Amino acid sequence: MVNEHMIPVTIGGRTLLRPSGAPTPAGYLVGFHGYGGTAEDELRLLSSIPGSDRWTLLSIEALHPVILRDGGQGSSWMTSRDRLRRIEENVGYVDGVLDALAAGGGASGTIVFHGFSQGAAMAVRAALHGRRPPVAVMLLGGDIPPDAKGLGGMGRVHLGRGFRDRLYTEEKCNEDRRRLRDAGVRVDFSAFIGGHGPGVEYLRSAGAFLSGCVQG
């Protein structure tokens, strides 16, 4: 007879932090990259949003390394095996990152989560199950997990999709908009010319949304 045991271990997660250049930072803009991406990829995306220099940018890299078809290396937020356990670990990881910032005198005040592609699901889960709920969640080219409940806990939502995006289809996007509307969530929707990634129109819309998240 074979018995399976899951052994908790401590592993290191990688993050990039870019301090705000503003005398009084607006808060933390926390980003989650897409499948096969890196913390650098998401940090570049966050930095390209107009007005993001008012925010302290935090890009969190996923825990699961992957080798891409072209031989490049990146990370993934999810594996098909032990899915529920990995979700719990990922949320705990995000909590740990924000706890570490808080211990150093940061991570207080306004928090906004931003997720691209696969990272969109991570942003939703962190918002709904993490210890530090954000005032808003920004989702680009990625769907809300089908099992996500209590969507009202996401605060305001900015949802973006390129017209030519074959991964985040129009059908999935429409379903997400319906779910958010049914949950009473205020949604700012950005449909833009482009594919699976940010376009100029998206960045402009995201910047206006982010400006509206500044409190005080």
**Major sheet strand order:** 1-3-2-6-7-8-9
**Beta fraction of the residues?**
15-25%
- Fraction of helical residues: 25-40%
Indicate the mean pLDDT: 93
Content-based structural category: alpha/beta
The H-and-E topology, N to C, reads as EEHEEEHEHEEHEH
Supply Rg. Answer: 17 Å
**pLDDT < 50 stretches:** none
Spatial gap, N to C terminus: 62 Å
Main beta-sheet strand count, sense and barrel state: 7 strands, mixed
Count of alpha/pi helices: 5
Q: Care to count the β-strands? A: 9
Assign an overall shape: globular
What is this structure's SSE topology?
Layout: E1 15-18, E2 28-32, H1 39-47, E3 56-60, E4 64-67, E5 73-76, H2 83-103, E6 111-116, H3 118-129, E7 136-140, E8 156-162, H4 170-182, E9 187-192, H5 200-212
Parallel strand pairs: 2-3, 2-6, 6-7, 7-8, 8-9
Antiparallel strand pairs: 1-3, 4-5
Characterization of the model:
- By secondary structure, this protein is an alpha/beta fold.
- Helices cover 31% and strands 21% of the residues.
- It contains 5 helices and 9 strands, in the order ββαβββαβαββαβα.
- It has helices at 39-47, 83-103, 118-129, 170-182, 200-212, and strands spanning 15-18, 28-32, 56-60, 64-67, 73-76, 111-116, 136-140, 156-162, 187-192.
- The strands form 2 sheets. The protein has a 7-stranded mixed β-sheet with strand order 1-3-2-6-7-8-9, with helices on both faces. A two-stranded antiparallel ribbon has the order 4-5.
- α2 crosses α3.
- The protein is globular, with a radius of gyration of 17 Å.
- The protein starts with 14 loop residues before the first strand and ends with a helix.
